[in-house]
Design goal:
Layout (H helix, E strand, L loop, with lengths): L1 H14 L4 H8 L16 E5 L2 E4 L4 E4 L2 H4 L8 H11 L13 H13 L4 E7 L2 H18 L7 E5 L8 H5 L19 E3 L16 H10 L3 E6 L3 E2 L5 E2 L2 H13 L3 E5 L23 E4 L11 E6 H8 L16 H16 L2 H16 L8 E7 L2 E6 L5 H10 L2 E2 L6 E4 L7 H15 L3
Parallel strand pairs: 3-15, 5-6, 5-7, 7-10, 10-11
Antiparallel strand pairs: 1-2, 2-3, 4-12, 8-9, 11-12, 13-14, 14-16
Length: 440
């Protein structure tokens, strides 16, 4: 056994002489990637500002904020300093029976800037986990009220809430990424996605089917879960704030909790600090992640009202039955505090308006391309929807050769750049994107 192990170690050490990309192809399984014929990866050796620096010497302007989280760009001195100071004190300590300043300050900060009445904060590891926790909170709340029959969820089609099992169950069951798991996922209720667009005049019939489901099945429904205003990975759709207003009213009318998944929309991305603010509503439970630490470390949070937290705690269990090992990680909390402070101390709203204006002006010509179905923008989000799905293998190389990093999916080629991007950098990013799409 020892000889076999030594032989394996020698093989691995010898392989280290191979290039990182060769080793990557041999050992690493990337997200949403085939292990048989993977789409080539690009080795990043460093990142600074809005630039990803490749091992071959090229630098790419990042149009994705590393899946929407690096809002301050990369290698930011204030976030670096927060991480360095905290790691010298402690990088981690268990959160059961122990507390510490970074977590307490962060929870107070989140409660103070979030929509009203969200005054309890449960820290966790990632966005998908925060959704799992939100769903679990909703279920346990009704169990504690003696209404265990309220054990299903209502959501809207074209949504995306993560890759774990409860989260997958409320992603779009047909057009979403998880339809192959339909036989093993909990069956939830789905209403049509809103058809009234963000700036369009409200049409009350838009909420009719949603209202019908609540009216007839509320005894079974624990909570409504949706992405407020912007449906992200399920279709990059922007819908009317009035829809969200009516959802809040209907949840109150039919005694159902409301979960707002703000993982992608939180911290200013849409032009409001939280997308719920567009409708001036407060959910019962809210999920945060992605930009929470400015993309430095994995951290998420599930916020809830006193009604939910006390309702759960007054039940048979006497506590919320959840506790991640790395909950309240001090290093991540310290960086999150610095990231939020950095966002709020600047005129972030004016900055988002600047980005939105340039996205709208420079993306408008894309609509003239015969392959483009629609162009839409909101806040620091710009979307070019194609008539047909793009060839990711081909288009990814074209974008890299053009000096930009954009990661499309399906028919959607979209931008969510870091908030620090300059007008000149954004112009280069969009113009290069136009040249590539002109070849499609």
């Amino acid at each position: 056994m020892i000889c076999q192990l030594d032989s394996f170690k020698i093989t691995v050490l010898n392989n280290l002489n191979s290039s990182i990309l060769e080793l990557d192809k041999q050992y690493v399984w990337h997200p949403y990637s085939s292990s048989i014929d993977p789409i080539p990866s690009y080795e990043v050796t460093s990142a600074d500002g809005v630039y990803l620096n490749l091992s071959d010497g090229r630098s790419l302007i990042d149009g994705m904020s590393s899946w929407w989280c690096a809002i301050h760009g990369y290698n930011h001195p204030e976030l670096n300093s927060a991480a360095k100071q905290q790691i010298d004190l402690m990088s981690h300590v268990m959160f059961g029976g122990i507390t510490h300043e970074p977590a307490v300050v962060l929870c107070k900060k989140l409660a103070s800037i979030s929509p009203p009445n969200l005054n309890k904060v449960f820290l966790c590891d990632s966005g998908s986990v925060s959704v799992e926790i939100a769903i679990k909170m909703a279920y346990q709340y009704w169990i504690s009220q003696g209404l265990s029959s309220k054990s299903r969820l209502l959501t809207i089609r074209s949504g995306y809430h993560g890759d774990t099992f409860a989260a997958m169950s409320v992603c779009d069951p047909v057009t979403g990424m998880h339809h192959i798991f339909k036989e093993v996922l909990t069956k939830q209720f789905f209403a049509p996605s809103p058809f009234t667009k963000f700036k369009e005049k409200w049409v009350e019939n838009d909420i009719a089917e949603f209202k019908k489901i609540l009216a007839t099945r509320s005894a079974e429904i624990a909570a409504v879960i949706l992405e407020p205003i912007v449906q992200g990975a399920g279709g990059m759709r922007f819908y009317s704030p009035q829809y969200l207003t009516r959802v809040r009213e209907l949840c109150d009318q039919f005694n159902v909790l409301l979960i707002a998944d703000e993982i992608a929309t939180g911290f200013g991305r849409t032009g409001e600090l939280f997308a719920c603010n567009w409708a001036n509503i407060s959910p019962d439970i809210m999920c945060l992640g992605k930009a929470l630490t400015g993309g430095y470390m994995t951290l998420a949070a599930t916020l809830c009202s006193a009604k939910v937290s006390s309702g759960i705690s007054a039940g048979e269990a006497g506590c919320f039955m959840h506790g991640p090992t790395f909950m309240g990680n001090p290093l991540a909390c310290a960086v999150a505090n610095a990231s939020i402070d950095l966002l709020l101390k600047n005129d972030w709203k004016a900055n988002i308006k600047r980005i939105q204006q340039q996205l709208q002006e420079r993306l408008e010509p894309f609509a003239e391309l015969s392959t483009v179905a629609e162009v839409r923008c909101l806040g620091a989000i710009g979307v070019v929807e194609m008539h047909e799905p793009v060839d990711l293998r081909w288009i990814q190389k074209e974008f890299v050769d053009a000096g930009i990093w954009i990661r499309p999916f399906g028919k959607l080629v979209y931008l969510m750049p870091p908030f620090i991007i300059t007008n000149d950098q954004l112009a280069i990013l969009i113009d290069s994107m136009h040249r590539v799409l002109s070849k499609v």
